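The data are passed on as follows:
___
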Amino acid sequence: MCDSKKINTKFHFSGLSHVVERKDTHKT
C-alpha cells in the first residue's frame, strides 16, 4: 500500500513538473 502511494506521488509530481515546464515554455 505504501509502495503504491509512493508511486502515485511520484507520478503526480512528474505530471506537475511537466505542466510547470510546459507553462514556462508557453510564457516564454
In short: Residues 2-27 form the longest helix (26 residues). The two ends are 41 Å apart (CA to CA).
